[in-house]
Design a protein that fits this description.
The structure is a single chain. The chain has a 5-stranded mixed beta sheet with strand order 2-1-3-4-5, with helices on both faces. It has a 5-stranded parallel beta sheet with strand order 6-10-9-7-8, with helices on both faces. It is built from 8 helices and 10 strands. With 244 residues, it is an alpha/beta fold. The protein is globular. Helix 5 runs parallel beside helix 6. The protein folds into 2 domains: 117 residues, 3-Layer(aba) Sandwich (Rossmann fold), CATH 3.40.50; 103 residues, Rossmann fold (3-Layer(aba) Sandwich), CATH 3.40.50.
Length: 244
């Protein structure tokens, strides 16, 4: 797939309600970025610089779009920045994840992606830990991480992950989308509260398939993370520059 000539940022998940993208696109334009509202079908023409994806209850199947993007080798390496947009398009929250992996993990893909990010460069020189936060562990993922030279630290709930993470300070974190006690986005927000863990690369693990009801429930499960006051332009751009 060829890159778009203008290397724009695309806002996906709005469906026909393109007016909900006006605030985000104006913020980005004022920050010096080209941006537009697009649909997943547009990806057949070219690849944008990155995708900003609305995953709020008002999105047009944002979670389904995410699964489609991540399940296709042609689009899974496009950076995706999840957003929570209000009904009228105000920015309620930004979730700066490092990336997504769909389980079961494809052979070799973890290595390729982490090498592209430069996250394997120091694994031979230092004793580094990678945290895996899942309900029951992910053996295939853990083996791939160990082969890259990392020690795996397992946690099985968000609460346990916070307790361990603030002690061992893992080099990177892999977390299931849904944990027994919270979502991956809840855990991401908690880690961002601590100076020693706020910048750890955080990857979210997706199931190969999510039912429509699960996707809708997930949109509502992050409602409580939305700020009482919407993000200002400068607050939004500060998140974006760290993530894109």
């Amino acid at each position: 797939m060829k890159e778009c000539e203008d290397r724009e940022l695309w806002l996906l998940g709005l469906g026909d309600k393109i007016e909900r993208g006006a605030v985000v696109c104006s913020y980005l334009a004022e920050g010096g970025y080209r941006a537009k509202v697009a649909g997943i079908a547009d990806l057949a023409k070219c690849t944008p610089l990155a995708i900003l994806l609305d995953i709020s209850p008002w999105s047009d199947d944002g979670w389904g779009i995410l699964q489609t993007l991540n399940g296709d080798p042609a689009t899974r390496d496009i950076p995706v920045l999840p957003l929570y947009l209000s009904e009228n398009g105000q920015v309620g929250e930004v979730f700066p994840v490092a990336g997504f992996f769909t389980l079961p993990l494809e052979n070799g893909y973890l290595t390729q992606k982490l090498q592209r990010f430069g996250l394997t460069d120091e694994s031979d020189d230092y004793d580094l830990q990678a945290m895996v936060v899942t309900r029951k562990g992910e053996e295939r993922l853990e083996h791939a991480i160990v082969k890259l030279g990392f020690e795996v630290v397992n946690a099985y709930t968000g609460k346990e992950a916070i307790a361990l993470g603030t002690i061992v300070h893992p080099y990177m974190i892999f977390c299931s989308l849904m944990l027994p006690d919270q979502t991956a986005f809840d855990l991401l927000e908690r880690f961002r509260l601590y100076p020693q863990t706020r910048n750890i690369p955080f990857f979210v693990l997706l199931k190969e398939a999510m039912k429509e009801g699960e996707r809708g429930a997930m949109s509502h499960a992050i409602d409580h993370l939305v700020r009482k006051n919407y993000l200002t332009r400068d607050e939004f751009l500060s998140y974006f520059k760290k993530s894109a």
